[in-house]
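Let us work through a complete example step by step.
Step 1: write down the sequence.
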Amino acid sequence: MNRALDTMRIAGARVARYNAVQPDRLDETAVKWTGSGRSRSRYSAISAGLRVVLVLIYVLVVGWFQSFSVPLVIMAPIPLTLIGILPGHALTGAFFTATSMIG
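Step 2: predict the structure and record it as tokens.
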């Protein structure tokens, strides 16, 4: 892919390639390679945070009601929120992300 980009010209100018740094100019055509690792690591951090928060909520509700089954009943609707989230994203054309799912 890099060889193909090196031979590519747009409006007579070459396409600049940046691997690990941000472009320093705004007047050039450029491609910045970040890879999927960056977005994956962000998603895994959000996902891990969501799991920790759900466990903490469960522990707090167990402490409040002195029961292990009542918190399960209280938290059962959480997966059902997808019924509202998915059509809402489809109607508005919004991207479905981990952050929007948490919200």
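Step 3: interpret the result. The chain is about 60% helix and 10% strand.
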